[in-house]
Amino acid sequence: MTLQLNVSGRRVAITGAGQGVGRGLALAFAAAGAEVLINDLRGERADSVVEEVLAAGGTASALPFDVTDYQAVTDAFATAGTVDVLVNNAGNAGADGFLTGRRFAATEPVDWEPFLRVNLYGVLHCSRAALPAMVDRGWGRIITIVSDAGRTGDPNSAAYATAKAGAAGFTRSIAVEMGRYGITANNIALGTMRTPLTEPLWSQPDAPQAKAILRNYAIRRPGIADDVTHLAVLLASEHGSWITGQTLPVNGGFSFAL
Fold first, then answer.
1. Interhelix angle for 226-236 vs 20-31, to 10°?
2. pLDDT at position 228
3. Which residues lie across from 38 on neighbouring strands?
């Protein structure tokens, strides 16, 4: 028996898909036969990935909006048409402070807000916009990219970890509520990934900071988009129809799930 991951005929909306893991997800879903709606806060990044998908023979269109703006999200989904699969990938790990971080006691509410708005409220906004039509059709998939920081805690990243843990808890609740309508909801929890945001870490792999990070991983390398994409496509396919409410780590052995 040959296992083929096929999502032909499905329309898949992926947030934050203009670069990094989101871009990899867009390319993978398109290769598996889906029509991909590529969201990014920056329209030019979304357009660039659309061009890549089209050049590879896939089907895609840009869907630019800010996941933190609920009205913009609902307007975009209202005009986008059918969305069978929502991948909540857009995230904020702290573009200016990723390499350093700060102890929670040294932060203020204004510091927490960007993490909560993107990583938690962004997930709620997009899921709220997508779910009613999924209920009407009796089929849907919600896949949310979270972080091991939300599973295990992470020093100097308390607000980020809180937002990711909240998103994971939201997914579990949605799985319970929506299963009767043929809708599944799952999380994929990532470890440290090699993306444009983290590239400064890996440009010198023998640097002390990079080596210190990788010592925490059983497989001593950062993750790449291809490590994530096949699992996401599986969860979106009919082969994933009895998997719901789960948080599945893709993390090189940083932490383990029972």
1. 50
2. 96
3. 14, 62
What is the amino acid identity at position 151? R
Q: Given 121, 160, 181, 217, which residue is catalytic?
A: 160
From 124, 68, 109, 114, select the one nearest 94 (Cα to Cα). 114
Output helix, strand, coil percentages for the chain, rounded to the nearest 5: 45, 15, 40
Alpha carbon of residue 225 to chain centroid: 11
Q: Largest Cα–Cα distance in the chain?
A: 57
Alpha carbons 212 and 143: distance in angstroms, whole number = 31
Cα–Cα distance measured from residue 204 to residue 218, given in angstroms and rounded to the nearest whole number? 20
Give the global pTM.
0.94
| Chain-centroid distance, C-alpha 253 | 19
- Concatenated DSSP letters for 11-72? EEEETTTTSHHHHHHHHHHHHTT-EEEE--SSHHHHHHHHHHHHHTT-EEEE----TT-HHH
Mean of the per-residue pLDDT values for the chain? 93
Average pLDDT for residues 184-210, to the nearest whole number? 88
Phi, psi of 84 (to 5 degrees): -85, -35
Q: Is 112 helix (H, G, I), strand (E, B) or coil?
A: helix
121 is catalytic: no
Cα separations (Å) of 243 from 29, 172, 225, 237? 18, 12, 22, 11
What b/e sequence results for 106-131 when a residue is b if at least 16 CB atoms lie within 10 Å of its CB, and e otherwise?
A: eeeeeebebbbbbbbbbbbbbbebbb
Kindly report, residue by residue over 126-152, the tens digit of the pLDDT.
Answer: 999 999 999 999 999 999 999 998 998
